[in-house]
Every structure is written in structure tokens, then in C-alpha cells.
Amino acid sequence: MAIRVLLVDDQPLLRTGFRMILEAEGDIVVVGEAGDGVQALDQTRALQPDVVLMDIRMPRMDGVEATRQITGPAKDGPAKVLVLTTFDLDEYVVEALRAGASGFLLKDAPAAELVQAIRVVASGEAMLAPSVTRRLLDKYAGKLPSGEEQVPDALHRLTEREVEVLKLVARGLSNAEIAADLFVSETTVKTHVGHVLTKLGLRDRVQAAVYAYESGLVRPGAQ
């Protein structure tokens, strides 16, 4: 079945460009467009998209609040949110990830990267580009814990190997990269990631990465 996508951006020209790129793919269909967060909520309820491509800075309701309502406890559909960012201007990407976004993508990303991101998010995975993630977290290092805070009790539920995996997820590594780093199979890594999410009550890898920084387990800028 085709992946149903809703485009949300207050610039019509950008929406047109995204539509042209996505509709050239046989497995993706653009079911609608919205110019602000309020329209995004209405369209999400009406059209039941699989993925919402969400801008952050918009009139009436921004992408952070729209994301929170689309993915929150009261959600009435399967929609995943992929946030679009210009990076240097968007100060609220971390807030969007906390709100429930499954990842983020730069607006000037190559077309192939946009298409792949849609597919990854639709499949239930998180879109966590390592280089952008590290730059983002470094940029907002002052707003995150220094790493000297007391580690939350919840982390003690994790095994030593699960803590290792969480740290690598926070660095933006894929399952394949983590498997190579720890000399285990990808299947084993997926199992560990699943245990981490379950034990910490997190939705996906994006929340896990943010949690690792906020808890002080990983320090911004650390390798």
C-alpha cells in the first residue's frame, strides 16, 4: 500500500516542490496540504495520513504544538510526524522531538533523502541523521544537562549492555553501526533497543536520544 503523506508548510511554493518530489515515487501519495498547525490537525483527522511532513514556524499554531496534538495520547490515527527544519533558524526542534516527532530533516536535503526519510518514518522507525543530531544537540548544549546531574533511577533498570546501546543511539548511530561497534548482530541490537524503550517508557529512538542527553547519561559534544 502507498504511504499517505500530508504536507504542512506555510509556504505554498515549498509544498509544491515537496509534492512533485514525492508523487514521482510509486509508493508515496500526497493526500493533502496545510498552511498552518490548525489546518494540519483538521487535515490529519480528515485524511488519516501515515506521515505528516511538518514545518515548525507557522501562523496560528506552530509545528511543535501541532505535533504534540497529532501524536499525543488523544490521537485518533496512525500519523507519524517528520519535522522540517532550516536548522539555523529553528530553535524548537528539540521541543518538537519531545512533543512526539519521529525525526527531523533539513529543508534543503536532497530529494532522495526526503523520500527515504518518509519511508523510514512510515515504517515506524525514527529518522535520526547522525551529523545533524550532533550539531543540533551541540547547538543547544546550554539548555541540556551538563552530565554532572544525578542519573535518574529509571536508568538503573537497564543492563550494562542496554546502557551502551542507549549511548550509541544518542550519538545517532544506526542499528547496523551499533552492531559493528559492539560486535553483535543487528537483530541483537534491535532487541536491546526494544528493551531500552520499554523499560524507560519511550516511544522511539528519537525520544531515547533526547532522554540520554536530558538525563545526563550523554554530554553534548561528547564522542
From TrEMBL:
Domain Response regulatory residues, every copy: 4-122
Presence of the UniProt keyword DNA-binding in the record: yes
Alphabetical list of Gene3D superfamilies matching this protein: 3.40.50.2300
Annotated positions of the 4-aspartylphosphate modification: D55
The entry's keywords: DNA-binding, Phosphoprotein, Transcription, Transcription regulation
GO terms under biological process: phosphorelay signal transduction system; regulation of DNA-templated transcription
Protein's UniProt keywords contain Transit peptide: no
SUPFAM superfamilies: C-terminal effector domain of the bipartite response regulators (SSF46894), CheY-like (SSF52172)
Coiled coil stretches, renumbered: none
HTH luxR-type domain boundaries: 151-216
Gene Ontology MF term list: DNA binding
Domain of life (superkingdom): Bacteria
Pfam family, one: Response_reg
CDD domains the UniProt entry points to: LuxR_C_like, REC_NarL-like
UniProt name for this protein: DNA-binding response regulator
Organism: Streptomyces carminius
Lineage of producing organism: Bacteria, Bacillati, Actinomycetota, Actinomycetes, Kitasatosporales
